[in-house]
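Notes from hallway chat w/ T.B., transcribed later so I don't forget. T.B. wanted the structure written out for a chain they're using in a teaching module, and asked if we could keep both sequence and structure tokens in one place. Agreed to drop them here.
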Amino acid sequence: MKARISAVLIAVSAALVSTSGLAAGRNGPPSPRGLCCTAATVVQPINQAETAALLWLREEEKLARDVYLALGNQWQDGVFNRIATAEQRHFDAIGATIALFALTDPAQAGTGQFMNADLQALYYDLLADGGQSYAQALVVGATIEDLDMRDLQGALAATSNPALQTTYRNLLESSKNHLRMFVLQLRSLGQDYTPQYIDPVLFDAILGN
């Protein structure tokens, strides 16, 4: 799985430099649950790299939701089901931001279906890993949040756009809560998670280590 995720991260970097065109800002629909921008948010055009990051994060949030739904169903576990519900809000928040900038939404309608081939392959890898045991499913959940936080931090650091900053900061705080839930559940089983993508200092702060 690590090799697959490394390939995905390379794909993100490539996408950030290859997406063409600028997305002009316009007024969009209300944001879901306050995760996106507010009515007072200043809407500014976004550049190529910001567009690529936003579209990537849309499918990445779908990946999290779809994996959690599948693992929650397999293991009949409330933790996955609760976080899947929160991931739906994340997915909607990114969708509202995409609409705000009049971009074409890459998200596919079907569960477990992705436009990006790397995310499609990662989805299958994560399901296979999470299907091995309940503990491994929790590791998969922590890994998804770890990776998601890394990408959100990168996208946040690379933009000065107020609408994007609002969305990413809110999602980042929610992802911290999700990571904490997965790791604490894993620790209750006598196991632990070592961060693979975010700074270990941040990880320790999130878990209160």
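Follow-up for T.B.: The chain has one domain: 2-12+54-207. Might be a good example for the class.
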